[in-house]
């Protein structure tokens, strides 16, 4: 895949970039290793001050950075600007809290002073996706660099300007040279980078196939890895739920980032007593959304990331309908220019169809009918994924049974799933392993060293 900016709203390639040569890549890895020897000894309060300066820069330039993201991935300008501000929030959160999270942890051992120290590992490779081109990077970089590691970013090939802008922001905020670097390389270089002795760990957010490849490469080298992969999140609605609120959040979650988010609600599992009403309301609300230029403030849903993304989603929908699903609304991609797909609702999902087994990465909602609570849990767990999920009920017993029964890394009750610095983020099953954010962020890429001082 070429390293290039292609505007999804028009299909026009705006700019292309030459990948790093083998020598250039090698020099950047060496530089990251050298930078680590100094950065690891930088006092925590100095690291925190730099991240506060970076946060201020991001807030000040959010509009400009947001326009770059809109041009490269087609997200609405309002959501792109909000994403940059979210990155600033993450920088401040770890500037304020990482030192306490990484403080020595004492253990009660008679006659000795025993603590666990959290020491940084070294250069960490981050293989990041295009859909949240800033937040995905900062939710790794802020905690990992506050812990004393250095960062090497291999971003998606369709967001080179976002990737370079992130590196530039670190530099202009005053971070020491080479503490954070962007690597403009293709995915074929990832295994070689992981294999370099100087690179000590890797984190990936992306597809299940990419996760398997990175996990295999990291396992071969015995290096720490974190994977955040796909999701087909359940959204369970029971009769006691506030139906207006459930439908409003269903639409907001499914169309977040034009429907291209791992934690979008994708499978709507509704008790049979309210299934017809919910499906009708959901279809009407999705059909009423405005699809158009992501720079237009009246646009609700912009384009998908590429022409291939439209083709894949369209085929998944067509195959699901051919298998027996009901098309409630949508289902016909735009004729162009641009990579548009309409908000779509499918119901009566057949077993084995794409909507049943695959992640639909676009504004397509799939509705299941559940006989009772146990059936809702069964349907929710009938997936190879287990990233997040949300449940809508005001019955305390139902809430607890759903929380215990649904197999996900995250479950939200009467609230749509989200990613925020204060809360751990990650999945189970084929959605990956490891956790990001909260206290897990700074403690992921560290050596938890036991120190025993006899008689201390």
What report would you give on this structure?
α6 links the parallel β6 and β7 (180-182). The protein has 2 domains: 4-229 and 431-454, Aldehyde Dehydrogenase, Chain A, domain 1; 233-421, Aldehyde Dehydrogenase, Chain A, domain 2. With 456 residues, the chain is α/β, with parallel strands linked by helices. It has helices at 22-39, 44-60, 62-73, 77-101, 135-146, 160-172, 190-195, 208-221, 243-255, 272-287, 307-322, 354-357, 373-381, 396-405, 440-444; strands at 4-7, 12-16, 105-107, 112-120, 123-127, 150-154, 180-182, 201-205, 224-228, 233-237, 265-271, 326-329, 344-347, 364-370, 385-386, 390-392, 412-413, 428-429, 432-433, 446-454. 42% of the residues lie in helices and 20% in strands. α2 runs antiparallel to α4 (77-101) and α9 packs across α10. It is globular, with a radius of gyration of 23 Å. The termini are far apart. Keywords: NADP, Oxidoreductase. It comes from Pseudonocardia lutea. Residues 3-451 form the Aldehyde dehydrogenase domain.
As residue ranges, the low-confidence spans are: none
Percent range of helical residues: 40-55%
Distance between the termini: 58 Å
Q: What would you report as the Rg, rounded to the nearest angstrom?
A: 23 Å
> Helix/strand-derived class?
alpha/beta
The CATH homologous superfamily of the largest domain corresponds to Aldehyde Dehydrogenase, Chain A, domain 1
Instruction: Look at the structure and give the CATH class of the largest domain.
Output: Alpha Beta
CATH topology term of the largest domain: Aldehyde Dehydrogenase, Chain A, domain 1
Largest sheet: number of strands, sense, barrel closure: 7 strands, mixed
Q: Give the name of the CATH architecture of the largest domain.
A: 3-Layer(aba) Sandwich
InterPro entries: Ald_DH/histidinol_DH, Ald_DH_C, Ald_DH_N, Aldehyde_DH_dom, ALDH_GabD1-like, GABD/Sad-like
Family: Belongs to the aldehyde dehydrogenase family.
Pfam family, one: Aldedh
Protein name: NAD-dependent succinate-semialdehyde dehydrogenase
